Amino acid sequence: MKQLSIWALLSVLAAAAAAPAQQQPTVDELTTTIQALKMRLRDQGNRLAELEDQVARQQVDLVQTARRMAADAGERSAMPTWLENLKFYADLRLRYQGECDEDATDHRRKNRNRARFRLRFGFVKTLLDKQFEVGFRLASGDTPGATSTNQTFDNVFSEKDLWIDLAYAIYRPNWLKDLTIIGGKMKNPLVHTDVIWDSDVNPEGFVAAFKHAFGPFEPFANIGYFIIEERRGVALNAHDTDLWTYQLGFNWQIADGVKHTCAVTYYDYDHMELVLAGESYEVINLTNKLGFAVGGLPISVYSDILYNCDSDKTPDGSQEQACAFGVKAGKNKKKGDWSVGYKWAYIEAFSTPRVLNDSDFRGSNTKGHVIGGKYNLTDFLVVGAKVFFTEDIWGPTKGVEDITTQVDLVWKL
Fold first, then answer.
1. Candidates 3.30.1050.10, 3.40.50.150, 2.40.160.10, 3.30.1330.90; correct CATH number of 90-412?
2. Enclosing H/E stretch for 61
């Protein structure tokens, strides 16, 4: 712009010098001409700046339009809308299980070697701003009604069964976020240990759960109704076997990384004697769990005690108590993670229904120790091992010692 102004000025001066003397412009005329040229040049500069701004805005609009078009195309080419918020998950476990049992009569050891697998896979979908969750899972298993999803390698390479392991719906209303309602065949929603519930047992029924936090202290209440056996119309005066559960407790974040959970649960089994001949159960259970860290290593400890208030109706009239203690150090989330654990349990014969608690520990009427550990070979592959040292508490096999070893490889998707 400056060069153009100089050239214009020189041109005017040259023209003035070349003109006849009588036509020489005055100083005022030259000044006016120069000012006019400057204003014209300024107007042209402003016009150019406006044009540059328009081009820049158009470029931005073009980029934004292209991005919107790409996003729309991506959405149109994506999966159907019913697949939104749908999650698939699965795991496969291969297990070697060695059992060394002592014969009750001659005290000789009898060895059994078993190869087993567990396959589970399912889907979870959330709806209406995650207020609703619907899920199902299929799992392997030897027989219906068993508390284990393990499938033993046997029966001349025959096909293996899959069972419905989970089929549930959960409602968490936005208008009352502290409330959760569950119906169907569900993961166990109660605070518990395997003294009462095997990890593979998924109860069937309905649960209402409520919790509310007051700072670090969060009390909760759970009420459940579960159907164990339905008999209406099968025989005269037949009764259903069902279970009402009432649980009160709290979660307390004592300090950073230190959490205490305590729960008192009352299990009211109605007509359980029709499932377990002559056995009746009304169980009160106190569970405590504590999590903390030592030098960055996560530690969890639990204790569990229970008493069957209705044991006088059982064949022995006693054997109504159980207690357990466990500790675990470490975690298993990603490659290189490890954990080790120990459990001691004393579960008398009629303290809790033996068809529902830990089958690996051989259910009720058992005392003993379990030690084990896990290691993450990768983020999705875990190797683990456990050893069970157990013996019967009551009956003709009292004091008979069993040793069970389990070695696992678990793949997770």
1. 2.40.160.10
2. helix 27-77
The residue whose two tokens read 């049992």 is 101
Between helix 2-18 and helix 27-77 the angle, nearest 10°, is 150
What's the CA gap between 238 and 4, in Å, rounded? 109
The pLDDT value given to residue 33:
78
Answer yes or no: are the C-beta atoms of 279 and 314 closer than 8 Å. Answer: yes
Secondary structure class of 413 (helix, strand, coil):
coil
Model's pTM, two decimal places? 0.79
Instruction: Spell out the residues 6+ positions from residue 198 whose beta carbon is closer than 8 angstroms to its own.
Output: 147, 148, 356, 357, 358, 359
Instruction: Give the pLDDT confidence of 182-228 residue by residue, as tens digits.
Output: 999 999 999 999 999 999 999 999 999 999 999 999 999 999 999 99
Looking at residue 60, its amino acid is: V
Per-residue model confidence as pLDDT tens digits over 273-324 = 888 888 899 999 999 999 999 999 999 999 999 999 987 765 666 889 999 9
H-helix segments, 208-320: none
**Length reported for the chain:** 413
**Cα gap 26→12, rounded to integer Å:** 12
Distance CA 286, CA 248 (A): 10
Q: Name 398's Cβ contacts closer than 8 Å, sequence gap at least 6.
A: 391, 392
Residue type present at position 345:
A
* DSSP state letter for 240: -
Q: What are phi and psi of 62, to 5 degrees?
A: -65, -40
DSSP 167-227: EEEEE--GGGTTEEEEEEE----S---TTT--TT---EEEEEEEE--BTTEEEEEEEEEEE
Give the whole-angstrom CA distance, residue 53 versus residue 275: 84
Token pair of 99 as six digits:
């059992």
Give CA separation, 260 vs 12, 129, 180, 291, 342, in Å: 94, 31, 22, 7, 19
First to last CA, the chain: 68
Structure tokens at 281: 């159960």
Parse the chain into domains and list their residue ranges. 2-77, 90-412
